[in-house]
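Worked example (supplementary).
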Amino acid sequence: MSISIRGMTKSFGTTSVLRGVDLTVGDGELVALLGPSGSGKTTLLKIIAGLEWPEAGELTVAGTDWLALPAQARRIGFVFQHYALFPHMTVRDNLAFGLTVGPRKQRPDAAKIAETVDNLLNFLQIPHLADRFPAQLSGGQRQRVALGRALAIEPSVLLLDEPFGALDASIRRDLRRWLREVHDQTGSTTIFVTHDQEEAFELADRVVVMGDGRIEQIGSADQIHDHPASPFVARFMGAVIELPVTLRAGRAEAPGLDASALDRRALPDGPATLFPRPDAITVQPDPASPWRLAAKTSTGALIRLDLHGSGDARISIDLPRYTAPPVEIGTHLRLRPLAGAIFSAARPATAAAAPTPLSPIKENRL
Ligand SMILES: Nc1ncnc2c1ncn2[C@@H]1O[C@H](COP(=O)(O)OP(=O)(O)O)[C@@H](O)[C@H]1O
Ligand SMILES: [Mg+2]
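After joint prediction of all chains, the assembly is encoded as:
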């Protein structure tokens, strides 16, 4: 079922958590919601699930106003990072649970429930776990069961809140592929929340980047990587270098910078910030450049150059070790970025890029 969210706002006390969210998820689509901790991802899912209510905005699912419906009426499948399976029930009984608690007239009979659970065990490739208790399962197996429990009720919408967040990287990768296969076969409309870029991009066709209660950008991995819509997205995508520059005729200028490899931008003349990709910069000796090589370290494949510029400006860049030019400590170097985003100080790239005060929260609540 398609989900349509319009102008959604939510605060807790004086903290604005959602600041006008607009998002459409197509029927059967799997969308990843990607953002740092505290950006409002869980709150948005809880509103969709009916566990929180917004101050303003619309939530329509398959044309029905869901804000008028109580949580039980929404048929949501929800999987959390730490999903508490019922510890005293076997996997089979955990999977059956949702089917045994529905309104009496919709409740399937015992034979039908057993058949549904068997099908689910096979479909999820966990029939051998059927008679185990949660304590006898690995973390990855528990999350497979948790997803099975969410799918058992044939949910209208599947909400996954960092479901693999507590697991090891290699298990996460396996589960990601498995989830993608499960999704391709069930076609459930799914929102998958994560703060891990790789996970978001590998899993979903469309990634929604959230920051400070707003959607900053929606796009594919390449679009978001190559054309971040705001300084926030550039930083979140790992653009760790920020150079103050002056734009003239669409080209960035700064002492010690050669921006001729970058396309000209349709941006007004004046102050701007360049976010060169740290993995796409080359350097050339230039005695007139303020950037002086202060240290170099090898990480095997890459060589990291620490450069000191005017005042307290400091940057580090990574070059492939085999093709990096030999440079001595103390050499002055000109920077030649091959890719990077530029944001004019005069005109934020999007309304969402305008800075807004929000108390920083480090902890993820779920
Ligand atoms: N029930 C609540 N009461 C007060 N503040 C909350 C509550 N739930 C979430 N918040 C705050 O809302 C912000 C967004 O939280 P959350 O939606 O959990 O973000 P995310 O899932 O992206 O980490 C945080 O600042 C968090 O502390
Ligand atoms: Mg969260």
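Two points are worth noting when inspecting this output. The chain has two domains: 3-226, 239-346. The first strand starts at residue 3 and ends at 12.
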